[in-house]
Amino acid sequence: MLETRLCGVKLENPTILASGILGSSAASLIRIANAGAGAVTKKSIGPKAREGHDNPTMVGVAGGYLNCMGLPTAGVEEAVDDLAEYKKACKTPVIASFYGTTIGEYASVAKAIDRKADLLEANISCPNVQEFGKSFSASCESAADVVRAIKKITKTPLLVKLSPNVLNIGEIARGVEKAGADGIAAINTIGPGMVIDIKAKRPVLSNKTGGMSGPAIKPIMVRCVYEIYENVKIPIVATGGIISGEDAAEAIMAGARAVGIGTGVRYRGIEVFKLVQEELSKFMKEEGFKSIDEMVGVAHG
After folding, report:
1. CATH code, residues 4-49+75-194+213-300
2. What is the pLDDT of residues 46-83, one digit of tens each?
3. Residue 126 catalytic?
4. What is the rounded CA–CA span in Å between residue 80 and residue 119?
5. How many Å apart are CA 176 and CA 93, to the nearest integer?
6. Which of 68, 126, 140, 224 is catalytic?
7. DSSP assignment, residue 276?
8. Separation CA 169–CA 227 (nearest Å)
9. What gap in Å lies between CA 99 and CA 105, rounded to an integer?
10. The model scores a pTM over 0.70
């Protein structure tokens, strides 16, 4: 009942460990796969080692969290080793998220990790790394340019992670589809936002600002997925505020074929993957759905 396919890759269920949550090592990826996730995402891989921002990098807010991790990474070589170790130990599909500061860096990282994972995920939309300059997800042209460069040198199916911080996400999704993307991941965190410690009289986060995640952003994610579905034919992974089976059903009805879970791990532990599956299965039986395919996009009428 819960089986789905993503860019030709079979997932036993639609739950995916989102990038940046417990995906920094092969051991942590294996742990999440064994906890029942349908796929796992390796934390974003950069062209060279990067420490990210100093602590504090996360703060709880009403409805979720602000984070400014700053894309820490050990670099490509260690990431390739982690992916190889994971693939030897586990059959659950793995997605390799990656980033660059230039189109050339995106292409070089993609080439290094090509065929090392079941899917690649180009993170073109991180909202809290100001030194990277303007996000490549900000326009159709820049997003498409990145995708074309990656697709010229890779064979692994490519997901492109889009930002909600735009006015025309459907149009941008259509642009990356035309450029060769095999799927869309939506959304990245919202923001940046800020929390000020009124006693210390200064921002809480070391970077001052951070991206918002958690239940509060789910309605924005659902709207984005809905708009993307109306503009493209390639599959969508919905990420943003998914904690329950009902949340997953809503995202699937908006147009997603799979759902990424990140902050949900903080709310419900690593059991969240099995809990979401159980709740989703119960909902589907009650509503007469026999497969994920039957649910995808039904909210569009």
Report:
1. 3.20.20.70
2. 998 887 888 999 999 999 999 998 877 878 999 999 99
3. yes
4. 14
5. 23
6. 126
7. H
8. 7
9. 8
10. yes
